[in-house]
Amino acid sequence: MTATTATAPDREQPAEEPRGPQDPFDHDVLPTPPGATGALLRSLLAPMKARVALTVLLLLLQQAAVQSGPLLVAYAIDAAVPAFRRDDMGPLLAVAIGYLVCALASGALQYAFILASARVNQDVLLDLRGRIFRHAQALSVDFHERYTSGRLISRSTTDVESLRELLDEGLQELVTVVLSFVYIAALLLWLDLGLGAVAVASFVPLYLLVRLYRRRAGRVYTLRSTAIAAVIVKFVETMNGIRPVRAFRREAANDAGFRVLNSRHERTNGDALLEMARYVVGSRLVANTAVAAIVLWGAYRVAGGTLALGVLAAAVLYLRRLYDPIDRLGMFLNSYQSAAASLEKIAGLLAQTPSVPEPARPRRLPEREGEHPGREVVFDGVRFAYRTGGEVLPRFDLTLPAGQTVAVVGSTGAGKSTLAKLLARFYDPTDGRVLLDGADLRELAVPELRRGVVMVTQEAFLFSGTVADNIALGRPDATRTEVESAAKAIGAHDFISALPDGYDTDVRKRGGRISAGQRQLVAFARALLADPAVLILDEATSSLDIPGERAVQRAMSTVLHGRTAVVIAHRLSTVEIADRVLVMEHGRIVEDGPPAELVAGTGRFADLHRAWRDSLA
Amino acid sequence: MVTTHATPEDSPDRSAVRTLLRLWPYVRPVRARMVCAAAVAVVASCLALVIPLVLKWMVDGPVADRDPAGVWLGALYLLLLGIVEALLFGLRRWLVARPLAGVEASMRAALYARLQRLPVAFHDRWASGQLLSRATTDLMLLRMFLAFPLTFLLVNSVTILVGVIIMLIQDWTLGLVILVPAVPVIVTCVIFERRYASVARRAQDQVGDLTTVVEESVLGIRVIKGFGRHRSQARAFRELSRTLRGTELRKARLLAAIWGVIVTLPELAIGAALVLGTVRVADGELSAGTLVAFLSTALALRWPVDSIGFLLAMSQEAATATERYFEVMDAAPESDGHQPARADGEERADGGDGGHLGLRFHDVAFRYPDAPGDSAPLLERVDLHIRPGESMALVGATGSGKTTLTALVPRLHEVTSGRITLDGRDIAAMPREELRTLVAVAFEEPTLFSAGVADNVLMGAAEGAGEADLERALGVAQAAFVHDLPEGAATQVGEQGLSLSGGQRQRLALARAVVGRPRFLVLDDPLSALDVHTEAAVEAALRDVLAETTALIVAHRPSTVLLADRVALLSGGRITAVGTHRELLRTSTEYAHLMAGTEEAHR
C-alpha cells in the first residue's frame, strides 16, 4: 500500500497519505464507533428535553381530542337518543359541548403541536449543521485532502436534509401512528373486550408485515442510495470538467455512461416503489379483513342483543381510523432508513478527531525583540511520518533566524511542502517541536498563531463577495485604504480598478472573471494585509507572469522587509531574493547556504541553477 | 436574466398550474398508465365510501331484524369490498411505479444532456451545486408530485364530491350542515397557497446560499486555515443558518394555521350534524343506521379533506422545482455549427497560395455574452496567422485574455465578430464534432475524469487508438510515472480514484492533447506545475510533436516561448506584435518587460 504513491511521488501533495483499496476514505465509510449514531441523536435532543416533552404532550392531548369523536357518537346513539325521547336534554347538550370542545381543542392543539415540533426540529438542525460545519473547519488539512470535498458537501447538505425529512414528517407520523394505535386499541378494549381483542390480534400480522417490509425495503434502499451516489459523482465530474468534456467531444460517451448509471438508479427506484406497493396491499388486506371480522361478530352480537348498537358504530368508526395510518407507517420507515444511513455517515465524520487540535491552555507569543518584525523559527528534532508509517521527513533540526528569507528547492516529492505545512501548523510533527520565538506552535491559539505565521498556497481560492472582501480576509478590520494600498503594493490595483465595480466587484457575478494569475495577486494582497511575522509562499507565484513575480519580490523586500519568509518555488528567479537556500531531497536537507555560494559550488543547486539558466537561453 | 441562483420571478400571475403543465412532454409517454392509475384510485376511494352504506344496510336490516344469515352476507360484502379496495390500491401503485421512476430518469438524462451542450459561459455563471440540486432533489420532488399530489388532488376531490352526494342523498339537511365549512376552508387554502409559495421559494434559495458557504469553506479550507479565519467563517454560516431557521419557522406557522383551520371546521360541522342527527333519530325522522352511515361517511372524508393542505404545499414545491428545472432547460444550447459558410472563406480555400492554410484569426472581437453591454470588448481586431506546421507562442500580461483567445479556437466560446479559419474553413461553419477532432487542447487546470489513466489519455485520440499511441503520448509528456502506479495505465484516477499531484495531472493532460496527433494543438501554459528538470525533458520531447502540427501555446516563461517558432504579443485586447523571440525582445518594450527575467539573466 505504502509503496503505491511512494514510488510515484510528486510535488503538490507529497504529504498525501497513500491510499489503497482498504482505505475507508475510498469507500466513503469512515469508521463509526458503535453507538455513536444513537449518541449523536441523544446529544442533539438532550438540550431540549423539556420542549420535546411538551411537543409529545401536545400530540397526546391532540390525539385524545381527535379520538374522542366516535366515543361521543356512541354516547349520542346509546344515551342521548333515549334520553331525548324522555325529554332529557342533558346528554344531548353534553354531546354538543363535548364535540365543540373536542373540535376546537384538536384544531388549537394541532396548531400548537406543529409550531412546537417545528421549533424543536429547526433547533436540532441548526445545531447539527453548525456542528458539522465547525467540526469540518476544525479538522486538519490532511483530513480534507483525503475526504473529498464532494463528500463533505453532501454530509452537510443531503444528509442533513434526510434527517430534516425524518424530523419533519417521519417522526410526527410515527408518534401519531403509535399514539393512535394505543389510544384506539385501549378504547376498543374498553368499549368491548372481545371486539378490542380482535383488533389487537390483527396487530400481529401487521407487525410481521412491517418487519418484512423493513428488511426488504432496507436492501432496496441501500442499492438505491448507492445508485444515486454514482449518478451524482458522474454529474459533478462532468460539470466541473466541462471544458475538457467539450474539447475532447465526450458528450455522447458521457450520455451513454450516464444512461447506464441513471437507469440503474431508475431500476432500484422502481423496485423501491413496488416494494411499497406490496406493503400497501398486504397491510390493507389485513386491515380490511379485520374490519369485516369485527363487524361480523359485532353485528351478530347486536342482533343477539348482547351488544349496544352505538358501541358497534363507534367500534367501526375507530377501526377505519386504526388502519388509516398504516400506509404512513411505511413512509415513516422510508424516511427512517435514509435518515439512519445519513446520520451514521455524519456520526462517522464527527467522530474524526482533529489531528491538529487547538491548545487547551493557549500561551501568548513573547513580545518581539529588536527592530525586526520577523520571528525566529526553530525545527527542534522534527520528524514527520504518515499515520500509516511512511516517513516523509526524517528527524532534522533547522533554525531560521528572524528576518531571513529562505528559499526551499528540490525535486518532486522531496518534502518541501510538508516542511511548509509543518511550519504553518497544517500538520503537527510526529516527533519534535516547531518553535516560533521559542513558543511551540501547538500551544498557540489560532488568532495568535496566524499573527505569527501565514501561508499562501498555489491554489488561490476566492470566496463569494467582493474583491475587497477577499483581500480583507487577511485582516477583517482593515480599512478600504489599507486594502487598496496592499493591492497597490503587489501590483494588483490596476486590474482591480478596471473591473466593472472596482474593488466592489462581486467575484461570482457578471464581469467578475478573474484569471489564475490575477487570483494569485489577490491572494498575495491578502497575505500582505495580514502582515504576519513569518510568511510562507508555497508555489504561490506559479501562474504569475514575470512582471507579476517581480512585483511580489519587490513587495517582499519593501512592505514585508524584515519578516521571516519561506519561499518554495521551482522558478529559480524567485530564489534570487533569498538570503539562504535549502535544497531538499528525499525528505532531507542536502544543501544549505547563501545562493551565490551554492551556485559557485558543485552541488545539486548549482546543477539546478545551470539547468534553469539553460532554459532561459 | 438568470443569475447564479435564479431569483423567483415574483410576477403576481405566476401560476403554479401553468408551470406544472410544462411537465407534460415528459409525462406524455406514460399518460395511459397515469390515467389508469388515477381511475383505479378514484374507484378504490369510492369503494371506501360504499362500506358505510353496507353498514347502514346491516344495521337497519339484518341487525334490526335479528337475521344471522343477513349479517353473514353483509360481512361477506364488507370483506369482498375490502379485498378489492386493497388490490386496487396496490394496482394503482404498481401501474405507476416503473413509469414514474422512468419519468424521473428521463428528465435527469435530458438535464444532463442539455447541460453538456450548454455554452461554457453558462457553466461559468452556475455553481455546480446549484445544477446538482436540480438534478437530484428537485427531480425527486417532481416524481413525488406525480405519484401523490397530482393523483390525489383529483382523487380526493372526486371522493369528497361523491361522499357529499351520498350524504345529501341520505339526508340532505345533515348534508348541508356538513357542507357549511367548505367555503371558509377553500378561501383559507387559496390564501395559504399564495403565501406559502413565496416563503417556500425563499427557503429553497436560502438553502442554496447555505450550500454555497459550505462548498466554499471546504474548497477554500487552506486559505481559511492559513489565515485562521474559521471562526468568522463559522459566524457567517451561523447567521445564514439562523436566517434559514427563521424562514422555516415562518413556513411552519403557515402550515400550522392551515392545519388548524382544516381540522377544526369540518370537525365542528360533524359535531353539529351529530347533534342534529341525534335529535332526528330520537324524533324517529331518521334511522339509526342512516346516522351511523352518515357519520362514518363524514369521517371517511376526513383524510381527503385534511390532506388538501399538504397536497397543495407539495404541489407548490413541485411548481418551484419545475421552475428551477426549466431555468436550465430553457437556456439555449451551443448553436450547432452548420451556419452557412461565408463565401469568402470558401473562396480563399481555393486560393492556392498557401496564405489561407494554417490557423487564422480574421479581425476577431470577443466580449463575454454576460458582460455589461457598454463594457469594452476583451479582444478586439485580433488578426493572427499561424502557418501550417508552425507553432506560435502567445504572450501577454496577466489577465490580458490569452486563455480566452485560446478558448475561441475549439469554440468553447463564440467569437463576437470576425472569423477564425482552419486551413481556410471558417470554424463557425464546421460541425463542432469535426472542429474538435481537428483541434486538441491542454488546459491550464488539468482535469482528470474517474476512469483509468489510459482512458483519460486516449480520449484525445480517435476510436481504435492503441497501446502504441498511449506509450508515445506518455513519453512526450514524461509521464513514465504511470507505469509505477499500482495497476499501471489501468489505475483509476479522478475523484473516485488515486489522487495525483498537480504536476502529474498536468502531464497526463498534455499526453491527452498530443495522443491523437491533432492537426491543430492549443496549449494553455502547459508546463506551469512542472519542476525545472521535468520541464526541460517535456520541452525536448514536445519539439518533435510541434514540428508536425500547427500550435498555439500560451506562455509565461522564456523557456516555453522558445518552444515556438514565433511569438505573438497580446496587449490591450489586440495582437500588437508578431515575430521571433529575439526580434520582439529588441523591438517591443512591453515584450521585453514581460520577459524581464531574460534580460536580467543575461546581464
TrEMBL record, chain A:
InterPro entries: AAA+_ATPase, ABC1_TM_dom, ABC1_TM_sf, ABC_transporter-like_ATP-bd, ABC_transporter-like_CS, P-loop_NTPase, Type_1_exporter
CDD domains: ABC_6TM_Rv0194_D2_like
Membrane topology note: Multi-pass membrane protein
Chain ranges of the ABC transporter domain: 377-611
PROSITE patterns (UniProt xref): ABC_TM1F (PS50929), ABC_TRANSPORTER_1 (PS00211), ABC_TRANSPORTER_2 (PS50893)
Compositional bias annotation for Basic and acidic residues: 9-29
Pfam hit, one: ABC_membrane
Subcellular location per the Swiss-Prot or TrEMBL entry: Cell membrane
Gene Ontology MF terms in the entry: ABC-type transporter activity; ATP binding; ATP hydrolysis activity; ATPase-coupled lipid transmembrane transporter activity
Every ABC transmembrane type-1 domain range: 53-338
Region (Disordered), start-end ranges: 1-32
GO cellular component, one term: plasma membrane
Alphabetized UniProt keyword annotations: ATP-binding, Cell membrane, Membrane, Nucleotide-binding, Transmembrane, Transmembrane helix, Transport
Transmembrane segments: 89-113, 197-214, 302-319
Manganese is among the record's keywords: no
Family of this protein: Belongs to the ABC transporter superfamily. Lipid exporter (TC 3.A.1.106) family.
Matching PANTHER family: ATP-BINDING CASSETTE SUB-FAMILY B (PTHR24221), ATP-BINDING CASSETTE SUB-FAMILY B MEMBER 6 (PTHR24221:SF654)
UniProt-recorded name of the protein: ABC transporter ATP-binding protein
Automatic annotation (TrEMBL), chain B:
Main localisation: membrane
Subcellular localization(s) per the UniProt record: Cell membrane
Transmembrane segments: 35-59, 71-91, 144-166, 172-192, 254-276
CC terms in the record's Gene Ontology section: plasma membrane
PROSITE patterns: ABC_TM1F, ABC_TRANSPORTER_1, ABC_TRANSPORTER_2
Feature: compositional bias, Basic and acidic residues: 335-353
Entry annotated with the keyword Transmembrane: yes
Recorded topology in the membrane: Multi-pass membrane protein
GO molecular function: ABC-type oligopeptide transporter activity; ATP binding; ATP hydrolysis activity
Domain ABC transmembrane type-1 per the UniProt entry, residue ranges: 37-317
Region (Disordered): 333-353
Pfam families, sorted: ABC_membrane (PF00664), ABC_tran (PF00005)
UniProt xrefs under InterPro entries: AAA+_ATPase, ABC1_TM_dom, ABC1_TM_sf, ABC_transporter-like_ATP-bd, ABC_transporter-like_CS, P-loop_NTPase, Type_1_exporter
Record-annotated ABC transporter domain positions: 359-597
This protein's UniProt keywords: ATP-binding, Cell membrane, Membrane, Nucleotide-binding, Transmembrane, Transmembrane helix, Transport
Xref: PANTHER family: ATP-BINDING CASSETTE SUB-FAMILY B MEMBER 10, MITOCHONDRIAL, ATP-DEPENDENT PERMEASE MDL1, MITOCHONDRIAL
Protein name: ABC transporter ATP-binding protein
Taxonomic lineage: Bacteria, Bacillati, Actinomycetota, Actinomycetes, Kitasatosporales
